[in-house]
Amino acid sequence: MRIFHVLLMTMLLLLAPVAARAEGAFGQGVPHIAAELTAESNAPRPGQDRGSGTTIAFSMTPESGWHGYWENPGDAGLGMTVKWTLPKGVMVGPLRYPVPETLLIAGLMNHVYEGPYGVLAKLTVAPDVPRGTKLPIRVRANWLACTDKVCVPEGAELSLDLIAGDGSVLPGGRAQFDGWRSHLPRPLGSDATYALADGRLRLSIPFPAAAEARDVHLFALADGLTRYAAPQSVARQGDRLLIETEAGQGPLSGPVQAVLRTGDHVGFLLTARPGTVPAARSATARTLFLALGGALLGGLLLNIMPCVFPILGLKAMKLARAGGDEHIVRREALAYSLGIILTCLALGGLLLGLRAAGTAVGWAFQLQDPRIILLLLLLVTAITLNLAGLFELSAFGGGERLAGKAGASGAFWTGALVAFVATPCTGPFMGAAMGAALVLPIGAALAIFAGLGLGLALPFLALAYIPPIRTRLPKPGAWMGRLQKILAIPMALTALGLLWLLGQQRGTVAILLGAGAALILAAVLWWLGRRQHHGRHGGFAVVCAALILFAGIAFVLPTHAPAITASAHGIPFDEARLASLRATKKPVFLYFTADWCLTCKANEAAAIDRSETRAAFEKAGVTMMVGDWTNADPAITRFLEAQGRSGVPLYLWYAPGRDAQTLPQLLTPATLTALVS
């Protein structure tokens, strides 16, 4: 498959001049990646010492949504090819590429650049070239410009007119080239070692324990070292980085070269030689242990969400009704917990499967589909009306089992509903846990998802298996009916929130459709309640009507999200714009949010959208950038992955000239104003 891609791209590049003429004939000659040849000094100094000559660069600027390729493009694509026409006495060295980014499309790993970048080369002038000699530099460059759906071969005839001189550099040129040089991989002082066993490649790379390394990825310089799309597990062991991944198909029998990314376009050029590589199991076990702890605590905190707490209250009332019957109590607790854990495992497994297939999704991907929001709106509406006493669940087949002694089935599906509604928002302790789940082996990842479910089920398990806690519950009585109606209030607020979210995803028309569907369902359930009052049934007819209602409204929902505009609180997320702001030393506060994320909205109300925060940021010239993940956005998903996260919220602070600082998931105004104080 790799050979097929290379042959195909080579043929495309050979046809690039023809394609360029055809584009021009149809008025489509503007390249999707603009290229310019520039020199650090217009007067390179002749000589053979280190200070002679000058650095030249291909300044490449992709359009939004387009990308270019690294020298080893990965599973698809092709790097730049150049053909120089040089005057006598002038030589140009090999191209030097900046540290690339990863882009997974349909299961194929691409090594790309999605923002402006510079490809550098050293130009030297022979000592015998007299000063004042004109040096016309000409080059034919060909490259491939791609989106996630289409590739276009592009090229240009580029030129520089230099004059042999004293090598003087203008200050503006120095700053521009220093910026490009900062993105080149730096030589690693010591050799790494690698070992092959059972189709796995393991590397031990010398790297100081005190040095920061984030978003670590190994880019092989030649084919055959690794399978590009395979996950790479990274662990630290003292002053070494241990990387393990699936080996490539090529034979390995000597030193190999690769680029190790250790930050945003920051990395090292390393040489690895065959040797002994220690196992990284202890580090992986520590990562798994910490991630499991975060998942348990995060799941426990999800119980205070307004759409979960009423259901937990109902389950507690069932325990009060059960009295001292330990068998009933514990059976329902286990069924409820099993429903939660299996749903979390199903969501996690689906997430891992979609990502393995090349789809850019993260935790809470289900709430990015407006049809799921519509389904949840109807479910929550029905639960609200049931809590309010409009109808009884006994009208539905199996309803008696939900309320009686054989309620294990009902407890199981209640747990499944709780997990489906509660898990989307990444709260405290969950961010790092969910991020770790995406890089750990599949068994460990599923264990983290199960841990999240166990944390969500813990309060009910504690009530069931710790009698002293259960005995503190009030005795059954009339208060239970009043409490049930009170619990209908947060469920009704949840329904309103889902209706608002539907509008955020698909506009005003979706709000009207969702409100109409909820009102029709309420009317049908009121009809059912009236029939129950007279001792008649009708649950099956209501279920059929609700399914038809859902299918009909889902079919006519708008298919496109409203256009994203700059909000009053910041500019929309754009990675190229972020890189541009950082290059000009502008402070940036970047946060990722979603309308279905309660933690996000709480932080925005309590800390971000506050007068003191806005005043401090405005005084310091801070640019606020907002990544809205309410609807599926592959660019945001990839950026979150690069930060080791799989969901929102995420808050990043970029001080001028420094790498990103990850802020806590619970913010205060003091936390933000302290950044610029």
Q: Structural class per helix/strand content?
A: alpha+beta
- How many strand units? 23
Return Rg in Å.
30 Å
What integer is the average pLDDT?
80
**Low-pLDDT segments:** 1-10, 12-28, 395-406
Give the percentage of residues in beta strands. 15-25%
Number of helices: 20
Instruction: State the major sheet.
Output: 8 strands, mixed
Q: What best-fitting shape do the alpha-carbon axes yield?
A: elongated
How many domain units?
4
Distance between the termini: 55 Å
Helix content: 40-55%
Write the layout of secondary structure elements.
Blueprint lengths: L1 H13 L1 H10 L7 E7 L14 E9 L5 E7 L6 E5 L4 E3 L8 E5 L2 E6 L3 E9 L8 E13 L4 E13 L7 H11 L4 E2 L4 E6 L2 E7 L10 E4 L12 E4 L3 E7 L9 E8 L2 E9 L6 H21 L7 H14 L3 H31 L13 H18 L11 H5 L4 H15 L7 H8 L4 H24 L1 H5 L7 H28 L1 H26 L5 H18 L14 E2 L2 H9 L4 E6 L4 H11 L2 H10 L2 E6 L5 H9 L7 E5 L5 E3 L6 H8 L1
Parallel strand pairs: 11-18, 12-18, 19-21, 20-21
Antiparallel strand pairs: 1-2, 2-8, 3-7, 4-9, 5-8, 6-7, 9-10, 12-13, 13-16, 14-17, 15-16, 17-18, 20-22, 22-23
Helix pairs in contact: 4-10, 4-11, 5-11, 5-13, 6-9, 6-11, 7-13, 7-14, 7-15, 10-11, 13-14, 14-15, 18-20
